Fold this sequence. Notes:
The chain is an alpha+beta fold. It is built from 4 helices and 2 strands. A two-stranded parallel sheet has the order 1-2. Mean pLDDT is 84; it is low at 81-85.
Amino acid sequence: MNEQLRLDPETARAVSPATWPVSGAVRFEAWVGGDESSEFVRQSRLIAETWAAAGAATHFEILPKANHFTAPNGLATPRARSSQH
Length: 85
């Protein structure tokens, strides 16, 4: 994909959220559908783990039978949001 986007390795790293500086005041939620590709899941987990190591509060969760269109649906209800934290 980097070739199609004309990104060299340095530029690809610079635009990746996994390499951005993170402050401890950041909260990052990664809700990933279980129907996503293994690469999408890997990248989501990588960002959550990298940012957590930098001091951010993070949460990573795989939602069964969901994809990136349906995974956020459960977050639309106050009950779902309050029960996750």
